[in-house]
Design a protein that fits this description.
Bound molecules: zinc ion
CATH topology: Arc Repressor Mutant, subunit A
Order of helices and strands: HHHHEEEEHEH
Strand order of the largest sheet: 4-3-5
Low-confidence stretches: 1-8
Number of strands: 5
Number of helices: 6
Mean pLDDT: 88
Distance between the termini: 29 Å
Helix content: 40-55%
Largest sheet: 3 strands, mixed
Number of domains: 1
Length: 143
């Protein structure tokens, strides 16, 4: 993942940065793969907030563009820290869970074409790309 928002930028967007939120962001940042709420819970030191509080803060992070969530192949929701609040997408390795943040959006052209076709004005979209990362491809080739 690329550069992470600093503490300053948290203040810049006007959200109250509590100690608990900082800790939560750091847990997400420290992981090389997106975490489930249970995994996040396990990584928090005592006294830790309950799962509903963790979940609520994660939802808030998503609203602010600091984090994103997606559903993995087992239909479990996972959360990851975003390096940018600009619109972007992720590619997720289905074998090792590693997730890479992609620059920009490859959908722009296709969406304006779609708008012309269906007459809708597109306001937002989501795109999750699943695959096998280079390391997992190598590991498979060695077998
Ligand atoms: Zn991201
Ligand atoms: Zn992988
Ligand atoms: Zn996009």
């Amino acid at each position: 993942m690329s550069c992470h928002a600093s503490k300053d930028s948290l203040h810049a967007v006007g959200m109250k940065v509590t100690k608990a939120r900082e800790v939560l962001l750091r847990v997400l940042e420290a992981s090389d793969h997106p975490l489930t709420v249970d995994e996040i819970y396990d990584r928090l030191a005592q006294p830790r907030p309950g799962r509903p509080t963790i979940y609520r803060n994660l939802e808030r992070f998503i609203q602010e563009g600091w984090a994103e969530s997606f559903v993995d192949k087992n239909q479990i929701q996972r959360f990851l820290r975003c390096g940018t609040t600009e619109h972007h997408h992720h590619i997720h390795c289905e074998k090792c869970q590693r997730t890479t943040e992609l620059d920009g959006c490859a959908m722009t052209k296709a969406l304006s074409q779609l708008e012309r076709q269906c007459g809708y004005k597109v306001t937002r979209h989501q795109l999750q790309i699943y695959g096998l990362c280079p390391e997992c491809q190598k590991a498979l080739a060695l077998k």
